[in-house]
Specification:
Elements: H1 6-33, H2 45-57, H3 66-80, H4 83-96, H5 100-120, H6 127-207, H7 214-241, H8 262-271, E1 275-281, H9 289-309, E2 314-321, E3 325-332, H10 349-359, E4 364-370, E5 373-381
Length: about 400
């Protein structure tokens, strides 16, 4: 059942009040213009006015008790011939009732009331007037029923549309859940397995005979630390892709990358033999968490790209907090050494994902050759940020 607001109920009452007043005035006016028909034929005008007004007032309760009001109006129709009130009452019956047997019963009763009104009226009444009176009884009944059926069909169609829309959303959600589960399986079975092997190999290298060489031990420690960090972040990604999976314990969340970890990024690059410098103007660590994560990812992507495509090149990182936003720039010079054939391949997805992440914050990313090297320039304006970026 549809709940109506107080404003809707008041508007409906206003319409009912106006209709009741109009019907009462129509009944009184009809009695004023011509002599009454029915049982009050020849009765004093005041009596006819009282009966016509009472019949019109009964319509105030037509929505609460349409059958009772219709019966009262039929009696009034026989007594004082009130066609307008009769039409409104029959329309309400047609609109409120759905059983054909009930509608036929009221239609027959209305016709009998019309016949009795004509029979009790003055002799020699024109039959065309009687046909008009019967049409005024059956016509509103049929129209009211048609309006109700049309409204029911519209509600049913809307209900079907809503159900289909809910089903579509459910199917899309199931498809998304299935796709996320598939991606999570692939990440776990392939990436996590490979990275885990790297960590184990680095650990074995650290404690093996080769560990006597300080450079080898330091490299093994660095590889092991990077692998552990990659596994922690991968577990967090798997937890996002498959939240609440039955039988799966919630992974321990790794610290979210933020602007306070930029020094560690640059230090990590230096430990790998890369020449990198960091300059920070302002306090990016006070920015919203999604903006800080974006800054961290921009610097991370710039350092990674420089290591892959420009080995040995000097890399400069600039983070500048301005009044209108924050600018992040990662610039590397020309490669100082030839690229290793065993360096990891690049599909360009890193920059694409970076641009999408920054776009969620209403920012922009530009990247391209610069002074013999390469530069990534991003700008993120101040403003409300999405929760998930």
């Amino acid at each position: 059942m549809t709940e109506r607001t107080g404003e809707g109920r008041w508007s409906e009452r206003q319409r009912d009040a106006l209709l009741t007043v109009v019907v009462v005035l129509a009944g009184v006016g009809d009695a004023w213009v011509k002599s009454p028909n029915g049982l009050l034929t020849g009765a004093p005008f005041a009596v006819v006015v009282v009966v016509s007004g009472a019949v019109g007032l009964a319509l105030w309760w037509r929505r609460r008790a349409p059958g009772v009001v219709a019966a009262v109006v039929m009696v009034g129709y026989v007594i004082a011939f009130t066609p307008v009130a009769m039409g409104v009452a029959m329309y309400t019956v047609g609109e409120r009732y759905r059983r054909i047997r009930t509608l036929v019963l009221f239609g027959v009763a209305g016709c009998l009331a019309g016949v009795l009104s004509l029979w009790a009226g003055p002799p020699g009444l024109d039959l065309r007037y009687g046909a008009f009176a019967l049409a005024l009884i059956l016509g509103p009944l049929i129209v009211g029923y048609a309006v109700a059926i049309r409204r029911d069909l519209a509600l049913e169609a809307q209900s079907t549309i809503d159900a289909l829309e809910r089903e579509r959303h459910l199917l899309v959600e199931r498809a998304q859940v299935g796709e996320r589960a598939r991606i999570a399986r692939e990440l776990h079975d392939v990436v996590a397995h490979r990275v885990g092997n790297i960590v184990l190999t680095a650990g074995a290298l650290k404690v093996g005979p080769q560990a006597r060489d300080p450079a080898v031990a330091e490299a093994a420690e660095l590889i092991r630390d990077e692998g552990h960090q990659a596994l922690e972040e991968l577990r967090e990604v798997l937890g996002v892709l498959t939240p609440g999976r039955r039988g799966q314990a919630a992974p321990a969340k790794a610290p979210h990358p933020d602007a306070s970890q930029l020094d560690k990024l640059v230090e990590g690059a230096a430990r790998l033999g890369r020449r990198a410098t960091l300059r920070v103007d302002g306090h990016p660590e006070t920015l919203p968490a999604p903006v800080q994560r974006a800054i961290h990812r921009i610097v991370q992507e710039g350092l990674t790209n420089a290591a892959k495509h420009a080995p040995g090149a000097e890399v400069g990182v600039l983070v500048e907090c301005r009044m209108d936003g924050v600018e992040v720039r990662v610039t590397n010079g020309p490669a100082a050494a030839s690229r290793d054939a065993d360096s990891p391949p690049s599909g360009g997805n890193g920059l694409i994902g970076l641009a999408e992440r920054v776009a969620l914050l209403d920012g922009t990313v530009t990247a391209g050759p610069y002074d013999g090297g390469y530069r990534i320039d991003a700008f993120i304006p101040h403003g409300p940020a999405p929760a998930n970026t």
